[in-house]
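Standup notes
- DV: blocked on the single-chain target, sequence here:
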Amino acid sequence: MELKKDELASLCIHQLAEIDEESFMSQPVQQALIQSFCQNHNKAIECLREAAATQPEPSMFIILGKIQMKAKKTKDAVRSFKKAMKLLMTSAKILPNTFETAEMYYLTGLCYMEQKSLLRARDAFSMAIRLHSSYPDAFYQRGLCRMQLREATCIRDFNRALALCPSHFQAYMSRAAYYGSKGRYSKAILNCNEAIKILPSSGRAYFYRGTLKYQNKTFKAAIEDLSKTIDLNKTCILAYYNRAVCYHQIKDFRKALKDYGILLLLELSKEIAFKVLINRGLLYVELRDYANACEDFKEATLLSPYDSQVFQAIGICYHRLNEFEEAVRSFDQALKLDPVSVDAYVGRGNLYMENGHEAGCKQAQKDFLRAIHLNPKCIKARICLGYNFKVTYQNSLSVLCLIKQNNIDLICIHLYNTYNNHNKHKIIHVL
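- DV (later): unblocked, structure below
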Protein backbone atom coordinates (compact mmCIF):
# COMPACT_ATOMS: atom_id res chain seq x y z
CA MET A 1 0.00 0.00 0.00
CA GLU A 2 2.95 2.34 0.65
CA LEU A 3 3.91 1.88 -3.02
CA LYS A 4 0.38 3.07 -3.99
CA LYS A 5 -0.48 -0.35 -5.47
CA ASP A 6 -3.88 -0.55 -3.79
CA GLU A 7 -5.33 -3.29 -6.03
CA LEU A 8 -2.43 -5.67 -5.30
CA ALA A 9 -2.67 -4.90 -1.58
CA SER A 10 -6.40 -5.58 -1.61
CA LEU A 11 -5.87 -8.88 -3.46
CA CYS A 12 -3.29 -9.99 -0.88
CA ILE A 13 -5.60 -9.18 2.03
CA HIS A 14 -8.54 -11.01 0.41
CA GLN A 15 -6.35 -14.09 -0.12
CA LEU A 16 -5.21 -13.90 3.49
CA ALA A 17 -8.85 -13.83 4.62
CA GLU A 18 -9.47 -17.12 2.80
CA ILE A 19 -6.74 -18.96 4.74
CA ASP A 20 -7.95 -21.55 7.26
CA GLU A 21 -9.32 -19.73 10.32
CA GLU A 22 -7.34 -21.99 12.65
CA SER A 23 -4.22 -20.07 11.59
CA PHE A 24 -5.74 -16.93 13.11
CA MET A 25 -7.03 -18.34 16.40
CA SER A 26 -4.10 -16.87 18.29
CA GLN A 27 -4.55 -13.48 16.61
CA PRO A 28 -8.29 -12.60 16.79
CA VAL A 29 -7.74 -8.83 16.36
CA GLN A 30 -5.78 -9.31 13.12
CA GLN A 31 -8.38 -11.77 11.88
CA ALA A 32 -11.20 -9.30 12.64
CA LEU A 33 -9.40 -6.42 10.92
CA ILE A 34 -8.82 -8.50 7.80
CA GLN A 35 -12.45 -9.67 7.68
CA SER A 36 -13.63 -6.09 8.18
CA PHE A 37 -11.38 -4.88 5.32
CA CYS A 38 -13.03 -7.50 3.10
CA GLN A 39 -16.46 -6.13 4.17
CA ASN A 40 -17.19 -9.33 6.12
CA HIS A 41 -18.25 -7.27 9.12
CA ASN A 42 -20.44 -9.94 10.73
CA LYS A 43 -17.53 -12.43 10.76
CA ALA A 44 -15.25 -9.77 12.23
CA ILE A 45 -17.79 -8.92 14.96
CA GLU A 46 -18.30 -12.58 15.83
CA CYS A 47 -14.55 -13.13 16.07
CA LEU A 48 -14.03 -10.15 18.41
CA ARG A 49 -17.01 -11.02 20.60
CA GLU A 50 -15.58 -14.49 21.20
CA ALA A 51 -12.18 -13.00 22.00
CA ALA A 52 -13.65 -10.34 24.32
CA ALA A 53 -15.58 -13.00 26.24
CA THR A 54 -12.33 -14.72 27.24
CA GLN A 55 -10.08 -11.65 27.27
CA PRO A 56 -12.14 -8.54 28.13
CA GLU A 57 -9.79 -5.61 27.41
CA PRO A 58 -10.72 -2.00 26.59
CA SER A 59 -8.84 -2.10 23.28
CA MET A 60 -10.81 -5.19 22.21
CA PHE A 61 -14.16 -3.45 22.82
CA ILE A 62 -12.97 -0.27 21.08
CA ILE A 63 -12.06 -2.20 17.92
CA LEU A 64 -15.34 -4.12 18.18
CA GLY A 65 -17.27 -0.82 18.43
CA LYS A 66 -15.48 0.61 15.39
CA ILE A 67 -16.30 -2.44 13.28
CA GLN A 68 -19.93 -2.33 14.47
CA MET A 69 -20.03 1.29 13.29
CA LYS A 70 -18.81 0.18 9.86
CA ALA A 71 -21.58 -2.43 9.85
CA LYS A 72 -24.14 0.35 10.67
CA LYS A 73 -24.88 -1.31 14.04
CA THR A 74 -24.58 1.90 15.99
CA LYS A 75 -26.57 0.78 19.06
CA ASP A 76 -24.29 -2.24 19.49
CA ALA A 77 -21.28 0.04 18.99
CA VAL A 78 -22.42 2.37 21.80
CA ARG A 79 -22.72 -0.64 24.13
CA SER A 80 -19.20 -1.76 23.19
CA PHE A 81 -17.74 1.70 23.88
CA LYS A 82 -19.54 1.84 27.25
CA LYS A 83 -18.02 -1.53 28.20
CA ALA A 84 -14.59 -0.21 27.27
CA MET A 85 -15.16 2.90 29.42
CA LYS A 86 -16.25 0.76 32.35
CA LEU A 87 -13.05 -1.27 32.13
CA LEU A 88 -10.94 1.91 31.94
CA MET A 89 -12.48 3.50 35.02
CA THR A 90 -10.27 3.73 38.10
CA SER A 91 -11.34 2.60 41.54
CA ALA A 92 -12.56 6.16 42.12
CA LYS A 93 -14.79 5.77 39.06
CA ILE A 94 -12.86 8.42 37.12
CA LEU A 95 -11.87 7.98 33.48
CA PRO A 96 -8.22 8.63 32.59
CA ASN A 97 -7.66 12.02 30.96
CA THR A 98 -6.24 10.61 27.69
CA PHE A 99 -6.92 10.97 23.96
CA GLU A 100 -8.00 7.30 23.78
CA THR A 101 -10.77 7.94 26.31
CA ALA A 102 -11.82 11.14 24.53
CA GLU A 103 -11.97 9.19 21.26
CA MET A 104 -14.47 6.73 22.75
CA TYR A 105 -16.81 9.59 23.60
CA TYR A 106 -16.22 11.07 20.13
CA LEU A 107 -17.14 7.76 18.46
CA THR A 108 -20.16 7.41 20.75
CA GLY A 109 -21.25 10.88 19.61
CA LEU A 110 -20.97 9.82 15.97
CA CYS A 111 -23.20 6.84 16.72
CA TYR A 112 -25.81 9.07 18.36
CA MET A 113 -25.72 11.41 15.34
CA GLU A 114 -26.38 8.43 13.07
CA GLN A 115 -29.36 7.63 15.29
CA LYS A 116 -30.56 11.29 15.06
CA SER A 117 -30.19 11.60 18.84
CA LEU A 118 -28.63 15.05 18.66
CA LEU A 119 -28.75 16.02 22.34
CA ARG A 120 -26.95 12.84 23.38
CA ALA A 121 -24.45 13.33 20.57
CA ARG A 122 -23.77 16.91 21.67
CA ASP A 123 -23.17 15.77 25.25
CA ALA A 124 -20.83 12.99 24.09
CA PHE A 125 -18.75 15.43 22.01
CA SER A 126 -18.65 17.84 24.95
CA MET A 127 -17.28 15.05 27.14
CA ALA A 128 -14.63 14.26 24.50
CA ILE A 129 -13.60 17.95 24.49
CA ARG A 130 -13.47 18.02 28.30
CA LEU A 131 -11.10 15.05 28.28
CA HIS A 132 -9.00 16.36 25.38
CA SER A 133 -9.36 20.11 24.77
CA SER A 134 -7.33 20.06 21.52
CA TYR A 135 -9.67 17.80 19.56
CA PRO A 136 -10.68 19.63 16.33
CA ASP A 137 -12.98 16.89 15.03
CA ALA A 138 -14.91 16.85 18.32
CA PHE A 139 -15.42 20.63 18.11
CA TYR A 140 -16.49 20.28 14.47
CA GLN A 141 -19.01 17.50 15.15
CA ARG A 142 -20.42 19.32 18.17
CA GLY A 143 -20.82 22.36 15.93
CA LEU A 144 -22.81 20.26 13.45
CA CYS A 145 -25.06 19.03 16.28
CA ARG A 146 -25.62 22.54 17.53
CA MET A 147 -26.36 23.82 14.02
CA GLN A 148 -29.01 21.12 13.56
CA LEU A 149 -30.39 22.02 16.99
CA ARG A 150 -30.47 25.68 15.83
CA GLU A 151 -28.05 26.76 18.53
CA ALA A 152 -26.11 29.91 17.60
CA THR A 153 -23.08 28.64 19.56
CA CYS A 154 -22.34 26.24 16.70
CA ILE A 155 -20.24 28.95 15.04
CA ARG A 156 -17.90 29.03 18.07
CA ASP A 157 -17.25 25.32 17.67
CA PHE A 158 -16.43 25.72 13.98
CA ASN A 159 -14.12 28.62 14.83
CA ARG A 160 -12.37 26.55 17.51
CA ALA A 161 -11.98 23.59 15.13
CA LEU A 162 -10.30 25.87 12.57
CA ALA A 163 -8.07 27.45 15.22
CA LEU A 164 -6.82 23.96 16.14
CA CYS A 165 -6.69 22.72 12.54
CA PRO A 166 -6.55 25.53 9.91
CA SER A 167 -6.80 22.97 7.07
CA HIS A 168 -10.13 21.52 8.28
CA PHE A 169 -12.06 21.52 4.99
CA GLN A 170 -15.37 20.39 6.50
CA ALA A 171 -15.29 23.11 9.16
CA TYR A 172 -14.97 25.81 6.49
CA MET A 173 -17.85 24.27 4.51
CA SER A 174 -20.05 24.02 7.60
CA ARG A 175 -19.25 27.60 8.56
CA ALA A 176 -20.21 28.62 5.00
CA ALA A 177 -23.51 26.73 5.39
CA TYR A 178 -24.18 28.51 8.70
CA TYR A 179 -23.57 31.99 7.25
CA GLY A 180 -25.56 31.07 4.14
CA SER A 181 -28.55 30.03 6.29
CA LYS A 182 -28.40 33.46 7.96
CA GLY A 183 -28.41 35.30 4.61
CA ARG A 184 -24.81 36.45 5.05
CA TYR A 185 -23.83 35.28 1.59
CA SER A 186 -20.60 37.27 1.20
CA LYS A 187 -19.16 35.83 4.41
CA ALA A 188 -20.29 32.33 3.37
CA ILE A 189 -18.53 32.77 0.01
CA LEU A 190 -15.28 33.74 1.78
CA ASN A 191 -15.41 30.46 3.71
CA CYS A 192 -15.96 28.53 0.47
CA ASN A 193 -12.88 30.31 -0.93
CA GLU A 194 -10.79 28.97 1.98
CA ALA A 195 -12.23 25.47 1.51
CA ILE A 196 -11.30 25.54 -2.20
CA LYS A 197 -7.73 26.55 -1.31
CA ILE A 198 -7.50 23.41 0.84
CA LEU A 199 -9.18 21.11 -1.69
CA PRO A 200 -9.10 22.68 -5.20
CA SER A 201 -10.74 19.67 -6.82
CA SER A 202 -13.83 19.71 -4.58
CA GLY A 203 -16.92 19.89 -6.77
CA ARG A 204 -19.04 20.31 -3.64
CA ALA A 205 -17.21 23.50 -2.65
CA TYR A 206 -17.57 25.02 -6.13
CA PHE A 207 -21.22 23.98 -6.26
CA TYR A 208 -22.08 25.55 -2.92
CA ARG A 209 -20.15 28.72 -3.73
CA GLY A 210 -22.04 28.97 -7.03
CA THR A 211 -25.34 28.53 -5.20
CA LEU A 212 -24.38 31.26 -2.72
CA LYS A 213 -23.47 33.59 -5.58
CA TYR A 214 -26.88 32.93 -7.10
CA GLN A 215 -28.48 33.88 -3.77
CA ASN A 216 -26.28 36.99 -3.78
CA LYS A 217 -27.66 37.78 -7.29
CA THR A 218 -24.22 37.67 -8.93
CA PHE A 219 -25.48 35.33 -11.60
CA LYS A 220 -22.52 35.42 -14.00
CA ALA A 221 -20.08 34.59 -11.19
CA ALA A 222 -22.43 31.80 -10.09
CA ILE A 223 -22.40 30.37 -13.63
CA GLU A 224 -18.57 30.21 -13.55
CA ASP A 225 -18.58 28.17 -10.34
CA LEU A 226 -21.38 25.89 -11.48
CA SER A 227 -19.56 25.32 -14.79
CA LYS A 228 -16.44 24.37 -12.80
CA THR A 229 -18.57 21.92 -10.80
CA ILE A 230 -19.79 20.33 -14.03
CA ASP A 231 -16.20 20.10 -15.33
CA LEU A 232 -15.35 18.12 -12.17
CA ASN A 233 -18.52 16.02 -12.29
CA LYS A 234 -20.30 15.73 -15.65
CA THR A 235 -23.41 14.18 -14.09
CA CYS A 236 -23.97 16.66 -11.24
CA ILE A 237 -27.72 17.17 -11.66
CA LEU A 238 -28.08 20.11 -9.27
CA ALA A 239 -25.21 21.99 -10.93
CA TYR A 240 -26.92 21.79 -14.34
CA TYR A 241 -30.24 22.77 -12.74
CA ASN A 242 -28.88 25.78 -10.87
CA ARG A 243 -26.86 26.91 -13.88
CA ALA A 244 -29.99 26.75 -16.04
CA VAL A 245 -31.82 28.92 -13.50
CA CYS A 246 -28.92 31.42 -13.58
CA TYR A 247 -28.99 31.56 -17.39
CA HIS A 248 -32.76 32.06 -17.17
CA GLN A 249 -32.23 34.98 -14.77
CA ILE A 250 -29.80 36.77 -17.10
CA LYS A 251 -32.11 36.10 -20.07
CA ASP A 252 -29.66 33.79 -21.85
CA PHE A 253 -32.52 31.57 -22.90
CA ARG A 254 -30.61 29.47 -25.42
CA LYS A 255 -28.11 28.23 -22.82
CA ALA A 256 -30.85 27.78 -20.23
CA LEU A 257 -32.80 25.58 -22.66
CA LYS A 258 -29.65 23.58 -23.37
CA ASP A 259 -29.09 22.86 -19.66
CA TYR A 260 -32.74 21.95 -19.11
CA GLY A 261 -32.49 19.61 -22.10
CA ILE A 262 -29.35 17.92 -20.72
CA LEU A 263 -31.08 17.47 -17.37
CA LEU A 264 -34.03 15.66 -18.94
CA LEU A 265 -31.56 13.18 -20.49
CA LEU A 266 -30.16 12.30 -17.05
CA GLU A 267 -31.74 10.02 -14.47
CA LEU A 268 -33.79 12.46 -12.39
CA SER A 269 -36.02 12.03 -9.39
CA LYS A 270 -39.69 12.81 -10.03
CA GLU A 271 -39.38 16.00 -7.98
CA ILE A 272 -36.42 17.38 -9.96
CA ALA A 273 -37.91 16.32 -13.32
CA PHE A 274 -41.14 18.14 -12.41
CA LYS A 275 -39.26 21.34 -11.52
CA VAL A 276 -37.23 21.19 -14.75
CA LEU A 277 -40.36 20.85 -16.88
CA ILE A 278 -42.09 23.70 -15.04
CA ASN A 279 -39.10 26.02 -15.36
CA ARG A 280 -38.59 25.20 -19.03
CA GLY A 281 -42.29 25.71 -19.65
CA LEU A 282 -42.11 29.15 -17.99
CA LEU A 283 -39.10 29.97 -20.14
CA TYR A 284 -41.04 29.06 -23.29
CA VAL A 285 -43.87 31.32 -22.08
CA GLU A 286 -41.40 34.21 -21.82
CA LEU A 287 -40.37 33.44 -25.41
CA ARG A 288 -44.07 33.35 -26.38
CA ASP A 289 -43.59 29.78 -27.57
CA TYR A 290 -46.87 28.62 -26.08
CA ALA A 291 -46.99 25.32 -27.98
CA ASN A 292 -43.74 24.03 -26.44
CA ALA A 293 -44.67 25.50 -23.05
CA CYS A 294 -47.96 23.61 -23.19
CA GLU A 295 -46.16 20.33 -23.97
CA ASP A 296 -43.84 20.76 -20.97
CA PHE A 297 -46.70 21.58 -18.62
CA LYS A 298 -48.70 18.57 -19.88
CA GLU A 299 -45.70 16.30 -19.26
CA ALA A 300 -45.40 17.82 -15.77
CA THR A 301 -48.99 16.76 -15.01
CA LEU A 302 -47.93 13.13 -15.52
CA LEU A 303 -45.47 13.56 -12.65
CA SER A 304 -47.81 15.63 -10.45
CA PRO A 305 -51.42 15.01 -11.55
CA TYR A 306 -52.95 16.87 -8.59
CA ASP A 307 -51.25 20.24 -9.03
CA SER A 308 -53.98 22.70 -9.98
CA GLN A 309 -51.51 25.48 -10.89
CA VAL A 310 -50.02 23.39 -13.69
CA PHE A 311 -53.48 22.92 -15.22
CA GLN A 312 -53.99 26.69 -14.97
CA ALA A 313 -50.74 27.16 -16.89
CA ILE A 314 -51.94 24.72 -19.57
CA GLY A 315 -55.20 26.65 -19.80
CA ILE A 316 -53.32 29.92 -20.29
CA CYS A 317 -51.17 28.36 -23.05
CA TYR A 318 -54.23 27.00 -24.86
CA HIS A 319 -55.83 30.43 -24.49
CA ARG A 320 -52.82 32.03 -26.20
CA LEU A 321 -53.01 29.35 -28.92
CA ASN A 322 -56.73 30.17 -29.42
CA GLU A 323 -57.78 26.61 -28.57
CA PHE A 324 -60.90 27.54 -26.61
CA GLU A 325 -62.28 24.11 -25.72
CA GLU A 326 -58.93 22.72 -24.54
CA ALA A 327 -58.35 25.84 -22.47
CA VAL A 328 -61.75 25.55 -20.76
CA ARG A 329 -61.11 21.86 -20.01
CA SER A 330 -57.78 22.75 -18.39
CA PHE A 331 -59.36 25.42 -16.19
CA ASP A 332 -62.18 23.01 -15.32
CA GLN A 333 -59.61 20.47 -14.16
CA ALA A 334 -57.76 23.15 -12.17
CA LEU A 335 -61.01 24.06 -10.39
CA LYS A 336 -61.84 20.41 -9.80
CA LEU A 337 -58.50 20.05 -7.99
CA ASP A 338 -58.75 23.42 -6.23
CA PRO A 339 -62.35 24.70 -6.05
CA VAL A 340 -61.26 27.94 -4.32
CA SER A 341 -58.68 29.03 -6.92
CA VAL A 342 -59.41 32.69 -7.68
CA ASP A 343 -56.98 32.78 -10.63
CA ALA A 344 -58.63 29.77 -12.25
CA TYR A 345 -62.07 31.40 -12.07
CA VAL A 346 -60.71 34.64 -13.55
CA GLY A 347 -58.85 32.75 -16.28
CA ARG A 348 -61.90 30.71 -17.27
CA GLY A 349 -64.08 33.82 -17.13
CA ASN A 350 -61.76 35.62 -19.55
CA LEU A 351 -62.04 32.65 -21.93
CA TYR A 352 -65.83 32.81 -21.89
CA MET A 353 -65.68 36.58 -22.47
CA GLU A 354 -63.49 36.17 -25.53
CA ASN A 355 -65.89 33.60 -26.92
CA GLY A 356 -68.26 36.54 -27.50
CA HIS A 357 -71.57 34.68 -27.12
CA GLU A 358 -74.25 35.86 -24.72
CA ALA A 359 -74.19 32.53 -22.85
CA GLY A 360 -70.43 32.81 -22.56
CA CYS A 361 -70.69 36.32 -21.08
CA LYS A 362 -73.19 35.10 -18.50
CA GLN A 363 -70.93 32.19 -17.55
CA ALA A 364 -67.98 34.59 -17.35
CA GLN A 365 -70.01 36.82 -15.03
CA LYS A 366 -70.60 33.86 -12.71
CA ASP A 367 -66.88 33.06 -12.66
CA PHE A 368 -65.88 36.64 -11.88
CA LEU A 369 -68.52 36.91 -9.13
CA ARG A 370 -67.30 33.62 -7.66
CA ALA A 371 -63.71 34.92 -7.67
CA ILE A 372 -64.78 38.13 -5.88
CA HIS A 373 -66.79 36.09 -3.37
CA LEU A 374 -63.64 34.07 -2.59
CA ASN A 375 -61.45 37.17 -2.45
CA PRO A 376 -63.28 40.51 -2.27
CA LYS A 377 -59.96 42.35 -2.70
CA CYS A 378 -59.10 40.65 -6.01
CA ILE A 379 -58.54 43.65 -8.27
CA LYS A 380 -58.31 41.79 -11.59
CA ALA A 381 -61.60 39.98 -10.89
CA ARG A 382 -63.36 43.32 -10.29
CA ILE A 383 -61.85 44.84 -13.43
CA CYS A 384 -62.94 41.84 -15.51
CA LEU A 385 -66.42 41.91 -13.96
CA GLY A 386 -66.70 45.64 -14.72
CA TYR A 387 -65.78 44.94 -18.35
CA ASN A 388 -68.32 42.14 -18.41
CA PHE A 389 -71.08 44.46 -17.16
CA LYS A 390 -70.18 46.98 -19.88
CA VAL A 391 -70.33 44.34 -22.59
CA THR A 392 -73.73 43.17 -21.33
CA TYR A 393 -74.97 46.82 -21.20
CA GLN A 394 -75.10 46.97 -17.39
CA ASN A 395 -73.16 50.25 -17.29
CA SER A 396 -74.35 51.34 -13.84
CA LEU A 397 -73.17 48.05 -12.35
CA SER A 398 -69.90 48.43 -14.25
CA VAL A 399 -69.23 51.82 -12.67
CA LEU A 400 -70.25 50.52 -9.22
CA CYS A 401 -67.90 47.57 -9.56
CA LEU A 402 -64.97 49.85 -10.47
CA ILE A 403 -65.78 52.27 -7.63
CA LYS A 404 -65.72 49.40 -5.11
CA GLN A 405 -62.48 48.19 -6.57
CA ASN A 406 -61.03 51.68 -6.25
CA ASN A 407 -61.99 51.83 -2.58
CA ILE A 408 -60.06 48.64 -1.92
CA ASP A 409 -56.93 49.77 -3.70
CA LEU A 410 -56.06 53.14 -5.26
CA ILE A 411 -55.77 52.12 -8.90
CA CYS A 412 -56.09 54.35 -11.94
CA ILE A 413 -59.37 54.01 -13.83
CA HIS A 414 -57.45 53.49 -17.07
CA LEU A 415 -56.91 49.85 -16.00
CA TYR A 416 -60.53 49.36 -16.96
CA ASN A 417 -59.70 50.01 -20.60
CA THR A 418 -56.74 47.63 -20.66
CA TYR A 419 -58.69 44.48 -19.88
CA ASN A 420 -56.52 42.23 -22.02
CA ASN A 421 -53.40 43.09 -20.03
CA HIS A 422 -54.99 41.58 -16.94
CA ASN A 423 -55.18 38.12 -18.40
CA LYS A 424 -51.63 37.19 -17.44
CA HIS A 425 -51.27 34.35 -14.94
CA LYS A 426 -48.04 32.87 -13.69
CA ILE A 427 -47.01 29.90 -11.65
CA ILE A 428 -44.52 30.52 -8.87
CA HIS A 429 -40.99 30.14 -10.23
CA VAL A 430 -39.39 26.94 -8.94
CA LEU A 431 -35.74 27.64 -8.12
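- Follow-up: The mean pLDDT is 83.
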